[in-house]
Amino acid sequence: LSHNDEDTFKILIATDIHLGYLEKDAIRGNDSYNTLDEILKCAKTNQVDFILLGGDLFHDNKPSRRCLHNCITMLRRYCMGDTPIHFNILSDQNVNFNTTEFPWVNYQDENLNISIPAFSIHGNHDDPTGAEGLCALDLLSASGLVNHFGHSHSVEKIEISPILMQKGKTKLALFGLGSIPDERLYRMFVNNQVTMLRPKEDQDEWFNLFTIHQNRSKHGPTNYIPEQFLDDFIDLVVWGHEHECLIAPTRNEQQLFYVTQPGSSVATSLSPGEATKKHIGLLRVKGRKMNLEKIPLKTVRQFFIQDVVLADYQDQFTPDTPQVTKKVEDLCYAKVTEMLEEAERERLGCLLTPEKPLIRLRVDYSGGFEAFNTSRFSQKFVERVANPKDIIHFLRRREQKEDIKGQTEAKYTAHSVEGLRVEDLVKQYFEATEQTVQLSLLTEKGMGKAIQEFVDKDEKDAIEELITYQLEKTQRHLQARGVTTEQDIDAEVRAAACMGNRAEEVNVAINRAKALRLERGDEPVDADLSRELALDSDEDSVPFPPPARGRGRGGRGRGGRGRGRGELSYYLSQIKAH
Amino acid sequence: LSHNDEDTFKILIATDIHLGYLEKDAIRGNDSYNTLDEILKCAKTNQVDFILLGGDLFHDNKPSRRCLHNCITMLRRYCMGDTPIHFNILSDQNVNFNTTEFPWVNYQDENLNISIPAFSIHGNHDDPTGAEGLCALDLLSASGLVNHFGHSHSVEKIEISPILMQKGKTKLALFGLGSIPDERLYRMFVNNQVTMLRPKEDQDEWFNLFTIHQNRSKHGPTNYIPEQFLDDFIDLVVWGHEHECLIAPTRNEQQLFYVTQPGSSVATSLSPGEATKKHIGLLRVKGRKMNLEKIPLKTVRQFFIQDVVLADYQDQFTPDTPQVTKKVEDLCYAKVTEMLEEAERERLGCLLTPEKPLIRLRVDYSGGFEAFNTSRFSQKFVERVANPKDIIHFLRRREQKEDIKGQTEAKYTAHSVEGLRVEDLVKQYFEATEQTVQLSLLTEKGMGKAIQEFVDKDEKDAIEELITYQLEKTQRHLQARGVTTEQDIDAEVRAAACMGNRAEEVNVAINRAKALRLERGDEPVDADLSRELALDSDEDSVPFPPPARGRGRGGRGRGGRGRGRGELSYYLSQIKAH
């Protein structure tokens, strides 16, 4: 794709900027602000057509005054100015931008001189609250600094209307869905309550870009959104919420779309995912072709994480070695120093990178070792590390696992034996309800009807809340056990899921969703084997082809989605010429 | 003054809008929003040159998201647009607008299309906080919707640089001082640490407008700002903070300036001051002439307050009358009904006025009467009154007063007798310190030096805080006694003040301030008897003359302010031609 082509959309892609994260920390307080500045400057330097944010621009639902002030100031500094905008919006903007009194894109406002429009969905950190359903983004939206889109006001049914954009000959349909509790959205997908509207005209000409902010990795049986749930007419999904930078698009072979996961631009935890080198993306779209250039962020604080299993150092010490704890501490000191040296080498010449890196050493001291005094250890690195107080994380993996299993089983037994209090009865009721709901997936009436029955009892909110509460509690329960690696969580979740046969139910749900898609007239995904690929290469970028459409799938061919949904599946607004 | 004159500034004046006040109240929740809408609409209808706000635009230091969203939305709706602006700013805007990265007036920003610039100082409700010293207004400032001015960043010394404006031949110097704790500002005035800078050139041609947000009525010996403290070159003071609408300018015969007190636009208490009919002002300034038109606010909820002294109804009942409490309740019922009928008559045809008025009946039941059950009483008016729960306010004035005096004396005695705890010793120390500081006013070294001595001990903040704490505590103490009328508070304050001879000290302070003004070369205020008055009349408006300057007081005549302050007294920035 040639640069600055009049038919090429240039889009800066970023998610999870978490503005305001640790803003009171003396060392790290400005990290999130510095990186937003870098991101916006990058957008300006690259003369992008627009910025696309995948949620969690703010770390806090109610950002501090300083945080809002910084954000407003930076947006005004970088996104306002005389640079002309080269694309038009063809869709009904009253539908696209439904959160303010000014339901039109900011750059078309006669009173604002916007040089780079920013489009953002909300994340789970900056989600809408209160009777008005406003989120922090809406303050930026009301001032005309950001275009907040993808906010569904219904909790039962979602229709996603794309922002239809045209630049030269390229047609881009931008779909967005702001963060929704995963379980709820999961259920809505399963119950066929999520509809993506598409333009009727020239259906094959649109590049379909979808931005979502949900769990992508499986945090629980229904506590994530399987990629398979998403409509397969999508070309590229920009997946927010997941903090690991996996920005190079991966192809979903079943759905035939690509997924890019830009990851956070500031580490909000000291987990391995945050240690991956952080990037933002420069997406180019021309016709149906696309290309994503990875842009490394220079202001991001370095983060090094390493695991040490003490039992692996039998040649040096065992729990019985004299002064073993001192030896362990020395080993850790050496490891941390090593990481610091690596950080320093890497940082050479990078003037924008903060001097003190984040360091995490996870020490598995299973097998009878003792933890040493971490406060004394921290003291040694206070001048060199950004997080001196929590460098060392001791964990005892194997023993703990057994403990958890024991406890879990004990808990499950207790429930049917002990004398129950009222709240226990309520819990039991909902556990039973949940089972019914889940099991009903296997029956003809489906989950939708099962829930509807409860909803009809006029206790919609209460039930919804309690179910969500129960599901979340179970998950917190598992996470609270100090189980830190992803494998562990997965194992635990699987174990828990097996008790209610949930793992299978999830598969059933996925298959059901697929079946529904087939029912409404879509072709089976595997049948689409012929692809016309458009390859494009670029140094330090990830070339990849867009998933082309199979024969006979375009236009009218996808018309009859059948069974009362057909009409809704199409975007009915008139396409306006500008 | 002819309307729409090319030399006439038209300024909409309002203060204490208290946006967000009681926003969660089912009945009154939208009152503050409706009135801001009315005010902004009025500014637009009258095609004013600018809006001047005297502080407390927001009721809460941290306004809710809804509140900020509403405010941003209304400002964008009414203050942006194509109407051209007809005045220029001649002063150094970097000095005038020092709270954002965009230190220039919003209407000169190339990226914003402002039709009505709004200028605001901050009040005590929306004052700057945190390490950055930002207030809610600064969010509006950063987004370019309001011009926040009058924010002094020093707590020791204040220099007020005016925004110098010119429209046609009229020159307007707009001075502003955002809210500062009264005691602190009082002390700064006394210590000669408040300087108002004036343009060197054409000093006599400027109309000097000063906006302040402080106690105007005496809430304590040093807990207000005497008008005499303000420089007498000022022509008009717009006084915020005081909620009673006394918008018709009153002339200060000593200082020879006028003071307009627009008052709040929403009642935030059920006190008599809030019951005065609420107005905003349309100020016209042409050359040195001015005229203030009162504009009644239509969206303000009616508020009626009435006092009943039960002892005055001896012909109807006494405490010994059978079923006297029932008779009292009937009397109150009749009074409230009467007020409601009056409210209804007044409201006839006023479609914008909310239906349910605020009603307060203060019942003095001194002399052995008993209070009746107000919750049952409230129930009767729940459909007709906006504040059914607190219509009746029982008070027993006379007995209470005696109680207070007894208690106060007891308290003062106890201090020197009882065994003291550490905190009591600290209190005693500061009480003594305060006396010293106050008394030192009478000595040559002056209050400034006395304070300086404490400051030099490196305990500046601690001492400042403790003194403020002590003063505020004393005042709260007095207010907490259920003493509600202003006269009562005044009496109490005077009584308390007498104990430390404070009343006299205040007079001393005022005289000292005057003396200082004389020292630095100003002519004594009473000497200025010759006035050239410019009268102007208008229906429903308050015509009044601007205080003209006496001979020999202009230009060079006021040059030598003497004693090391001379140079600072002049506004040194170059006057730029636009």
Automatic annotation (TrEMBL), chains A, B:
Residues 550-563 have a biased composition (Basic residues). GO terms for biological process: double-strand break repair via homologous recombination; double-strand break repair via nonhomologous end joining; meiotic DNA double-strand break formation; mitochondrial double-strand break repair via homologous recombination; mitotic G2 DNA damage checkpoint signaling; mitotic intra-S DNA damage checkpoint signaling; telomere maintenance. Residues 290-454 form the Mre11 DNA-binding domain. The active site is at H125. InterPro entries: Calcineurin-like_PHP, Metallo-depent_PP-like, Mre11, Mre11_capping_dom, Mre11_DNA-bd, Mre11_N. Residues 532-578 are annotated as: Disordered. Belongs to the MRE11/RAD32 family. CDD domains: MPP_Mre11_N. It comes from the Eukaryota. Keywords: Chromosome, DNA damage, DNA repair, Endonuclease, Exonuclease, Hydrolase, Manganese, Meiosis, Metal-binding, Nuclease, Nucleus. GO terms for molecular function: 3'-5'-DNA exonuclease activity; manganese ion binding; single-stranded DNA endodeoxyribonuclease activity. Its cofactor is Mn(2+). The keyword Repeat does not apply. This is Double-strand break repair protein. It comes from Sander lucioperca (Pike-perch). Its main location: nucleus. It is found in: Chromosome; Nucleus. One of its GO terms (cellular component) is Mre11 complex. Core component of the MRN complex, which plays a central role in double-strand break (DSB) repair, DNA recombination, maintenance of telomere integrity and meiosis. The MRN complex is involved in the repair of DNA double-strand breaks (DSBs) via homologous recombination (HR), an error-free mechanism which primarily occurs during S and G2 phases. The complex (1) mediates the end resection of damaged DNA, which generates proper single-stranded DNA, a key initial steps in HR, and is (2) required for the recruitment of other repair factors and efficient activation of ATM and ATR upon DNA damage.
